Amino acid sequence: MLNLNKLLSHRNKRPEGIQPNFFLAVRIHNPELHKKVDGIQHSIAKYDEKLTPTTISSEKLYVSLMVMRLENAEEIQREGKILHQCKTPVEAIAAKSAMTLRFSGRGHFGHQFLYAKPDVKETNFLESVEETVRKIFTIEGIPSTDSRVHTSLEHHENR
């Protein structure tokens, strides 16, 4: 029998040496949020103009739910089928929950990705979706390599 708790217990730890190359995300379409992100990015650019090329267009904003390592075309195709399995449970969550997302604060991954942190008080919907998707992918043999749900604002390449 599959021990789901054991599989999920390591979800906060990235397996050594495994770098994600695919991510699962939800696009943000709210124009009000786009304007706020544009303002944040403008402030960052005023602080250091060299950072301007690293910004992500607000129209391309997304909330990352899961990152993973897929090695070949077969795994990519399998990921698509698993994603399809997530549709019904995620729709059920959306039907029961308000799809409100608020963000509070910023963070970074290795000084290369600047992201907005979801507000802890407003994450029930997001956490439910993330947990459901992660469970389904883990059961199907594609675990996440990280568990930090976030919204990317900038990406800095190693220079």
TrEMBL record:
<feature type="domain" description="A-kinase anchor protein 7-like phosphoesterase">
    <location>
        <begin position="20"/>
        <end position="148"/>
    </location>
</feature>
<dbReference type="InterPro" id="IPR052641">
    <property type="entry name" value="AKAP7_isoform_gamma"/>
</dbReference>
<dbReference type="GO" id="GO:0010738">
    <property type="term" value="P:regulation of protein kinase A signaling"/>
</dbReference>
<dbReference type="InterPro" id="IPR019510">
    <property type="entry name" value="AKAP7-like_phosphoesterase"/>
</dbReference>
<dbReference type="Pfam" id="PF10469">
    <property type="entry name" value="AKAP7_NLS"/>
</dbReference>
<protein>
    <recommendedName>
        <fullName>A-kinase anchor protein 7-like phosphoesterase domain-containing protein</fullName>
    </recommendedName>
</protein>
<dbReference type="GO" id="GO:0034237">
    <property type="term" value="F:protein kinase A regulatory subunit binding"/>
</dbReference>
<dbReference type="GO" id="GO:0005829">
    <property type="term" value="C:cytosol"/>
</dbReference>
